[in-house]
């Protein structure tokens, strides 16, 4: 039976469509093919979400969350399109080279290909499930025809757009193959994620994570191949950002993350190898086996992070010295400021963690409210640093992410002697969105603050964009939760907990923070080009998304807010 379009629209879907329409309304005519492709992707994702929501349980997703397919599918492509709009202004002002714009065009199409691949996969799964349940249904036939039309039109627009930035047909074919690999890799990765970590994420959250990973490591792979064998990759496929214009800090962060990815695979292989040859010997005590596992962990981690990862960094960028000494040289280039910041951070973290951990064990305060204090802690830690030491904060975010990943590996594998202690400590701050398999809240908060800052590197004519995560999570989300919990009466929906009072408080607090931040940035030398009406639209849209979505807001809201601030 067909579903009325009006009945199919809920609050989250309406806000997402408003978000997409806001970005599309800001596009120049030169980006019309990109607008058409994003429109088709949005319609296709809406059809898929409605179909999946009305099908039997297809995947073991996070309880209490909607599928979030449309939000997960359009977020990354819309972020890339917003960045593309921003770089188009830079090209018109002759502040960047055309190669950087072409690179961002490829990133947009790669992000779109990742989402499109996942949507096709989800539609096929839902189609097969519905066919098994009821072989006679005309609605699914209409859905299939509409979806197939969207995919065909999307593919045609993609080919036309890529042909305009390619010199030969071979280059166009090579780029299409590159996009196809992105889509295939994302599908395989989301299948692995949903099966390996059941009940840990919604489909939309899994789509965002897998698309982001494929996009990020695909960029690293293209960078590596272009450096090792430039003759095999056309120059326009790999932009100038892979060369001399890529910063040392960006390469260090990518190298560390690549090293941890390699380490996790190598460590798992070594453990299986060790258990195969020596694990059968039950005469050894359990404690001795744990010590051996710890030694394997530390040895492999140290070798990869000191030898393997820096070797990759030196391949893709010409460092004057080894990357490890370079990091220390960078920190001590301004020793007083940067070491003072490190001491300031350590004092804040120690005092806050000790205080909140004791409260979490002895208090009946809801975990979700307790964790909002860490959002405020992020404001205290990151806001002053972003204004006065932005490059150091870039590196610090990379270091913090690496530490979080190592601690999560220690917790999951129960590496002696810290594994159980880390698990007990982290469990004190979990809520219904976390599980014993993987704890994501601290990652989402860190990345929610870091991603807008990392993406704002290079040309940026909108000074508020680096602050998107800090403002939306540290101030807006925190005030919305606290005010809504204490004073909220009018709820947005009968089944949800979000209140109108909380949303109004979140929007007002972010606008107030912007009114303070803009003059402060102007006093430090920023050239302000943002006007209040676009800022108001961005703050209101992201605030409404926080009110309606059941997805992990730390992951989506900063990206949505960042995209709207770029316009």
Automatic annotation (TrEMBL):
Entry keyword RNA-binding: no
Enzyme class: transferase
Keyword Kinase attributed: yes
Topology class, membrane: Multi-pass membrane protein
Gene Ontology biological process terms in this record: dolichyl monophosphate biosynthetic process
Bilayer-spanning residue ranges: 106-130, 151-170, 253-274, 295-316, 336-357, 369-389, 395-416, 437-455, 467-484, 504-526
Main location: endoplasmic reticulum
UniProt KW keywords: Endoplasmic reticulum, Kinase, Membrane, Transferase, Transmembrane, Transmembrane helix
A single GO cellular-component term on record: endoplasmic reticulum membrane
EC code(s) of this entry: 2.7.1.108
Compartment(s) of residence: Endoplasmic reticulum membrane
Database matches in InterPro entries: Polypren_kinase
A GO molecular-function annotation: dolichol kinase activity
Protein family according to the UniProt entry: Belongs to the polyprenol kinase family.
Protein name listed in UniProt: dolichol kinase
Protein source organism: Gossypium darwinii (Darwin's cotton)
């Amino acid at each position: 039976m067909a579903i009325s379009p009006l009945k199919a629209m809920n609050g989250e879907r309406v806000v997402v469509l408003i978000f997409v329409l806001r970005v599309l309304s800001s596009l120049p005519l030169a980006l019309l093919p990109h607008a058409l492709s994003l429109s088709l992707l949005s319609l296709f994702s809406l059809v898929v979400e409605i179909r999946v929501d009305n099908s039997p349980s297809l995947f073991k997703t996070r309880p209490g969350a909607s599928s979030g397919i449309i939000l997960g599918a359009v977020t990354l492509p819309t972020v890339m399109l917003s960045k593309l709009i921003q770089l188009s202004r830079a090209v018109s002002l002759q502040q960047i080279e055309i190669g950087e714009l072409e690179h961002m065009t490829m990133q947009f199409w790669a992000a779109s290909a990742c989402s499109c691949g996942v949507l096709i996969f989800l539609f096929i799964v839902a189609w097969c499930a519905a066919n098994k349940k009821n072989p006679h249904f005309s609605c699914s036939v209409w859905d299939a025809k509409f979806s197939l039309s969207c995919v065909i039109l999307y593919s045609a627009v993609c080919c036309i757009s890529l042909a305009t930035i390619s010199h030969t047909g071979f280059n166009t074919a090579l780029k299409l193959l590159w996009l196809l690999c992105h889509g295939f890799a994302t599908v395989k990765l989301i299948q692995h994620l949903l099966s390996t970590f059941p009940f840990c994420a919604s489909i939309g959250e899994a789509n965002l994570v897998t698309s982001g990973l494929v996009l990020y490591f695909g960029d690293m792979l293209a960078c590596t191949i272009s450096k090792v064998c430039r003759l095999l990759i056309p120059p326009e496929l790999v932009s100038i950002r892979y060369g001399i214009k890529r910063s040392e800090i960006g390469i260090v962060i990518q190298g560390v993350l690549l090293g941890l990815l390699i380490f996790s695979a190598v460590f798992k292989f070594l453990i299986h190898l060790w258990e195969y040859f020596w694990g059968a010997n039950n005469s050894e005590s359990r404690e001795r086996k744990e010590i051996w596992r710890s030694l394997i962990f530390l040895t492999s981690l140290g070798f990869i992070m000191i030898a393997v990862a820096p070797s990759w960094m030196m391949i893709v960028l010409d460092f004057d010295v080894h990357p490890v000494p370079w990091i220390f040289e960078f920190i001590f280039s301004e020793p007083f400021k940067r070491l003072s910041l490190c001491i300031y951070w350590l004092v804040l973290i120690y005092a806050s963690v000790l205080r909140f951990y004791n409260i979490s064990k002895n208090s009946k305060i809801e975990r979700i409210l307790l964790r909002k204090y860490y959002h405020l802690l992020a404001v205290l830690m990151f806001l002053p640093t972003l204004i006065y030491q932005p490059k150091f904060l870039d590196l610090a975010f990379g270091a913090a992410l690496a530490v979080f990943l190592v601690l999560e590996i220690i917790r999951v594998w129960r590496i002696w002697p810290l594994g159980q202690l880390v698990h007990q400590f982290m469990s004190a701050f979990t809520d219904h969105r976390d599980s014993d398999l993987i704890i994501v809240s601290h990652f989402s908060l860190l990345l929610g603050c870091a991603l807008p800052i990392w993406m704002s590197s290079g040309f940026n004519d909108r000074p508020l964009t680096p602050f998107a995560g800090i403002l939306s999570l540290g101030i807006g989300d925190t005030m919305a939760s606290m005010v809504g919990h204490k004073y909220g009466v009018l709820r947005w929906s009968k089944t949800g907990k979000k209140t109108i009072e909380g949303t109004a408080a979140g929007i007002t607090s972010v606008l107030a923070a912007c009114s303070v931040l803009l003059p402060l940035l102007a006093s430090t030398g920023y050239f302000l080009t943002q006007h209040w009406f676009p800022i108001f639209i961005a703050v209101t849209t992201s605030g409404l998304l926080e009110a309606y979505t059941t997805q992990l807001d730390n992951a989506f809201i900063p990206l949505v807010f960042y995209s709207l601030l770029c316009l």
